[in-house]
Amino acid sequence: MMPSDARKILYVSGTRADFGLMRSTLCRISATPGLSLEVVATGMHLDPTFGETWREIESAGLDLVAQIKVTLSPATGATMAAAIGTMIGEFVTVFQRRAPDVVLVLGDRGEMLAAAIAAIHLNIPVAHIHGGERSGTVDESVRHAITKLAHLHFAATEEARGRIIALGENPDHVFVSGAPGLDDIVSRKTPSRDEALAGYGFDLSRPVGLILYHPVLQEAGVAARNARAVLDAVRSAGWQAVALMPNADAGSEEVRAAFTDDTNPDILKRVHLPRDEFITLMATVDAMIGNSSSGIIEAASFGTPVLNIGTRQNLRERNANVQDLPDDGAQITQALARLSVGYRCPIHNVYGDGSAADKICQVLADLPIGPDILNKVLRY
To answer: What is the reported pTM?
Structure first.
């Protein structure tokens, strides 16, 4: 049991993705003297369609103190906006009951925005991870909105830190931690390609990819067409792949239907992959194909080639393993044809060295957090 004077950190998790990225950091917070950790699960975590991934929070030995259910269907912009409103009210109730000292959020999703809005109106400081990054689309607007609501900032890169400060944030409260998603991958022992892929039934003499394609809110109307372009390109190039079903954003039902209707036996569809299995695949496939941030941020630590499709990761800092392509099947096919089995890019990752948890825990444990931290003003 933590001492009663421990600083209580409450983390909000809405998806398999954010929890996977944060798992090692959350476990480190929970084990750090002077800190205690609680987790609230919401969003896709609680929907059977997405694998009821809230169970992974409990499996990690973390204290899951509340579950907030929201409507995710139909997957439209209106549903997403209404869910934010629902979550704000529910977070207020949970935060009042749990009385955290800091609410911790990551990234650019609506559940994180809702948590930040609720927390500031209860005079609870907000700590934000992965602010200051560019990506275009609605994600960037939400990310910067959370930055302006937050009081502590853990940027993944120096460039991102500079943008947070340019937004008017106090430089003394903006720290470069690196990306938490790297912490559990830089030191792991990765099996060989053939060992890792042996259980999927693939012909290991042929290339194997990992497909992660999510819809973009502003392009929801063409989400199905774009998803089919990716699937058709994989088929035309003669590749095999594991395809992970998309998130619950506007257009996801159309993407899911495109994946489900695809009859190519060389593409295995999965609703969810446990974090360890996902990392092993990312480390050993011959390419990642799609528009996931994991291709931009994490895959570089393995040298895995990434074909980044479309606009979803527009303007994020790139590593040398990323090739940007439009939502065009012919160009994706040509790019796949240029890759070979077992090829790897030089390993260098601008997003950090796998020590984010240490840096985040040190700040959360040691930084004085008094009432004055809530009185934010633009620094210019």
So the answer is: 0.90
